[in-house]
């Protein structure tokens, strides 16, 4: 008899220990660990958002992952009350909720978890909360202004980038749109939504501008074709210079061609003062003399011609 009593006394602590192991997790929710996990679906892609940033206007799924390695709560019934922080409250019995934030901003998401272990047991509750930053995803990069420019001129290009800043922008120009695998890009931090680039094109033709933009939740890459033409001002200056030279040349030729020719005044004056003289000598021969009244310091006749003898 004493032997049976000893066995009973030895089994009682073991039974009590087993009951403690079973009842403690069911009566104390603070010993149950869990976490909130965020997923966002866009097209066929699913993104895990584990840094606290979400994209606005994109389908979002938040799941409460219960940490229960011993499966002590496998038969318990749970209730979930989701307060999204934007005035929307969703209740259900599933540890997942689907929603989307339509506007960017800062929100605090709160989850109230209720556990009903048995029908007679009281409802145990706990609250989980986390801060969420909702950002606008980058969906479009738009070029403002014309798509053609002139060579050898300082050109300013403007682009509008949607999406919540800060934005990391990486850009590069490709002459003749020839890919440059080894070449890098210029990295710029953008705290607004307008990107301005100053560039001087050194050659004509079609150039490509590659732009890659990203923020905390999205990334977008695109390329723009830019046509670079000759400088019209320099071309016009060359044409006007050539026209001026040709006009001056033709004017000079026309003036020389139309100017009247002048006779030598000295010759005219000398000819007008010439005197024709005839003299007969004793032998019947005649001589003709041209006598000039010399001017401008002339002292002697300019011409003396002996005429052939003839009889009168």
Tag the structure with descriptive keywords.
alpha+beta, PKD domain-containing protein, 5-stranded mixed sheet, single chain, disordered N terminus, 19 strands, 312 residues, rod-shaped, transmembrane helix
Fold and architecture overview:
The chain is of the alpha+beta class. The protein is built from three helices and 19 strands. The strands form five sheets. Strands 3-9-8-5-6 form a five-stranded mixed β-sheet, with no helix packed on it. Strands 11-17-16-13-14 form a five-stranded mixed β-sheet, with no helix packed on it. β1 and β2 form a beta hairpin. The longest helix has 27 residues. The termini are far apart. The N terminus is likely disordered.
Helix content: 10-25%
Strand order of the largest sheet: 3-9-8-5-6
Largest sheet: 5 strands, mixed
The string of secondary-structure elements, in order, is HEEEEEEEEEEEEEEEEEHHEE
- Average pLDDT works out at 77
Output the number of helix runs: 3
Give the terminus-to-terminus CA distance.
208 Å
Runs with pLDDT <50, length 5+? 3-29, 264-272
Rg for CA atoms: 55 Å
Shape summary: rod-shaped
Number of strands: 19
Write the layout of secondary structure elements.
Elements: H1 2-27, E1 33-42, E2 45-49, E3 53-55, E4 60-67, E5 77-83, E6 89-92, E7 96-99, E8 105-116, E9 124-135, E10 141-144, E11 148-150, E12 154-161, E13 167-175, E14 186-190, E15 194-200, E16 205-214, E17 219-229, H2 232-258, H3 265-272, E18 274-280, E19 286-292
Parallel strand pairs: 3-9, 11-17
Antiparallel strand pairs: 1-2, 1-4, 4-7, 5-6, 5-8, 8-9, 10-12, 12-15, 13-14, 13-16, 16-17, 18-19
């Amino acid at each position: 008899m004493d032997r049976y009593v000893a066995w009973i006394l030895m089994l009682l602590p073991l039974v009590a220990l087993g009951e403690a192991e079973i009842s403690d997790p069911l009566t104390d929710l603070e010993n149950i660990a869990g976490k909130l996990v965020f997923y966002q679906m866009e097209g066929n892609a699913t993104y895990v958002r584990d840094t606290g940033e979400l994209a606005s206007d994109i389908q979002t799924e938040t799941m409460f992952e219960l940490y229960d390695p011993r499966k002590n709560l496998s038969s318990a019934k749970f209730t979930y009350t989701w307060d999204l922080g934007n005035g929307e409250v969703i209740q259900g019995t599933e540890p997942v909720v689907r929603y989307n934030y339509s506007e960017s901003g800062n929100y605090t998401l709160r989850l109230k978890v209720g556990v009903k272990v048995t029908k007679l047991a009281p409802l145990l509750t706990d609250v989980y909360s986390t801060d969420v930053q909702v950002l606008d995803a980058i969906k479009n990069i738009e070029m403002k202004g014309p798509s053609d420019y002139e060579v050898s001129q300082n050109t300013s290009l403007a682009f509008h980038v949607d999406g919540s800043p800060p934005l990391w922008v990486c850009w590069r120009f490709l002459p003749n749109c020839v890919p440059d695998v080894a070449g890098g890009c210029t990295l710029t931090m953008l705290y607004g939504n307008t990107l301005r680039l100053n560039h001087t094109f050194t050659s004509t033709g079609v150039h490509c501008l590659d732009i890659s933009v990203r923020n905390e939740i999205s990334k977008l890459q695109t390329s723009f074709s830019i046509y670079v033409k000759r400088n019209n001002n320099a071309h016009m200056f060359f044409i006007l210079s050539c026209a001026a030279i040709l006009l001056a040349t033709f004017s000079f030729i026309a003036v020389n061609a139309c100017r009247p020719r002048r006779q030598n005044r000295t010759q005219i004056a000398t000819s007008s003062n010439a005197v024709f003289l005839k003299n007969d000598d004793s032998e019947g021969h005649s001589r003709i003399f041209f006598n000039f009244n010399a001017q401008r310091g002339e002292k002697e006749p300019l011409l003396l011609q002996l005429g052939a003898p003839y009889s009168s």
